[in-house]
Amino acid sequence: MAELEEGTLFCPECGARVDNDSDKTVVLQEDLDAVEEAANEQPAGGHKIYEDPVRQGQADQAQQPVYEQPVSREEPVRQEEPVQEPVQESAPVGGGEEPELCFCPNCGNKIESSSVFCEFCGYRMDGTQEEPQSYAEEEAPAGKKKSRLPLIIGGVAAVAVVAAAGIFALPKVMDMMGGKGKSDIPTELMYIKDKGIYGVSLKNSKKKPVEYTDNFADSDALYNAVDDFDTGFKLISDDGKYHFIIEDVDYSGTPTYTLSYVKGKKDPVKIDSGIEGYYRVTEDNKIVYMKNDNLYVSDLKDKTKLASDIDYFYLDKAGKNVMWEVSNSDGTDDIYYQDLAQKKDKIKIDSDSSVIGMSGDLSKIMLRKEDSIYLVKNQGDKEKLVGDVDEIMALDIEKGTFFYTASVDSKVKAMDFVDDDMAAADAQLKEPVRSDYERTETVGSGYFTYERTVVDDKYYEDMSKYQEKQERDRLREQLKEEEIASPYTELYYYANGEKTLVTSEFMNSISYFYITQADREANKDFGSYLMYTKTNSEEMKKVKLSEINYASDVSYMLSESRDKSVTYCVYAAGKEAEIDLDGKSVGNTMKDAKNNLVYLLLRDEDADYDDSGDLYSLSLNASDLGKMEERDSDVDNLELVSKGNVYYLKDTNDKNVGDLYCNGDSVLSDVSVYSVQSVPGSSSVICISDPNRDKDRGTLTMIKGKKAEKLSDDVNDYYAFGENSVAMLTEYNYDRMKGDLRYYNGKETYMVDTDVRNFFRTY
């Protein structure tokens, strides 16, 4: 096991909690329109088959779906696609380089880009913990293109790319503006070839590609730019009138680029240069972006400065209003709001606060200020909801519900936790009287005799016992006076404007999800839930007096007893239920909003992380809350829950390839671990099977019901826009950073272009 640095709260490899405290959970809620369904289910997308995929450990920290993250210079805004899973990128080999860093999109701390879990908050670095998929990157030899082929979670390619210099961290984040409202399937596919950007019609496969620029990035910047810009940068306006072209990508300092637009067949017109991070495109084709830490809006003719020295900005779903944050030295933010048209003065929402959630239209903003949670409605005065908050979990900002914990300091008399098992025996012990143990005996013979007093050995034995009793008496007095720290954690559920104490014996969270609009559409009754452990005080055994020597021993032995007296529980539908796991430990979990269930992969407590386990469902219905039902055995990996169906792998070999099952039925053989993804707008799923020896390519297969359709062989990277729209890179050469771009239109897979470096996924 890797040695953890002091202060680490969560293992960056398996996500296990090292310290139960979590001081900050940032959840940025958005309303999803065209992509709500996809955001809940992990739509299909690019993926590479890696040597040693990282498996999900015990889900000790919040499992979070895709929520809107702020737009910043280092954390640009993701456009309309559902969220993706960040994949660890391997840096080019070099001596003495510092570890590459990125920002955790949940808590904002800097962590190594290779981390699967944030060491500060436990957040799984896939952008959505709901259905975690992750791959361990292979080393990229010096001068070679990074192994960039990511998994797609929520329909966005998972590339949390950090440049070799460690300065361009691009965690992909949800665009609060949503999709077009009709279809997110593009009519034109944009891609990178040589050093330029091309586009090709998807309506007419016979049309030749159009070159929009030959200056996307120079040789020095191309290595990183190919990966950094494939997702989150909207290149075509919703009305199709404009193409937005990225040029002159520069990594010499803070990464910047030039943005231009093309209308029809006219020459490109520059919007601005030196742009940092993501830009946003509104429905009326205004561009919102950051430059030199300043916030601008452009109407494609003129630009207007909205704010200075900002760190993040959020655009509402309609693209009419913007909120931004200015960071303070203490880690808090000053938060502002203004309409893009600047018809009204800007509003200062609050100061010295942190945004933890918001609705897509920005009408509800949840803030944390010190240890209190506030709600701001319609940019009015903030309303205090609760105080003394440590950690907030399972936020549903639309319904205004969430769980939170509060730490309580407490001291108790040590004697209250001691079983005086020696009391009766000690009560019978009296101090031995020496004379009672003496006897006179004659020594010698004849004329040489005398008498002496002899003390029986039993006196010394009885005196020793009495002295031990005296020591216990002194210990009893100490225990009566000794106070030991006995802090505990309270778990509350906030709903309907009131808080409810769930338990005063909370230990750890095991599983929870944040509620999305797609969840509500799948099941209007699906709501916040929390699976957790608590101390069972009734089963806790007192410390025996005979087993301790000092009053301080009580605290240590009490802690051991508390850890052994654990009860698993679930809270949902306004009630708590205990769960019997039959001595097993929880692996990964996935929610099934449609059927109001949570799927759990349970393994023996002494099993390794890659051992098989049993698949169970956990009911969240009020009528049978906590009911466990075994669905299958000898399951190796829980892959996906989509449309009420659960997909998982069995008989996985040492090459991380196994047999895919759905709801107990065998579906497909030789499927790569963590490759099963849902397809937006359909009940189909897509996956990689039959990987090659190097495990960097395989057969792309779409599964419709029980029918499997092969789309292409030798696929390295792919992205599914829909059931009849899948782009893919095949036979990719990582030394040359080139491969064949192909497209599946529902009928056939055909060649689009050769020697393609990457393709864009945001439309």
Automatic annotation (TrEMBL):
Q: Which UniProt keywords apply?
A: Membrane, Transmembrane, Transmembrane helix
Basic and acidic residues composition-biased segments: 71-81
Q: Which domain of life is it from?
A: Bacteria
Oxidoreductase: present as a keyword of the record? no
Which parts of the sequence belong to the Zinc-ribbon domain?
Answer: 103-124
Region (Disordered) spans which residues? 35-95
Q: Where are the transmembrane segments?
A: 149-170
Spell out the protein name for this chain: Zinc-ribbon domain-containing protein
Q: Origin organism of this chain?
A: [Clostridium] asparagiforme DSM 15981
Record lineage: Bacteria, Bacillati, Bacillota, Clostridia, Lachnospirales
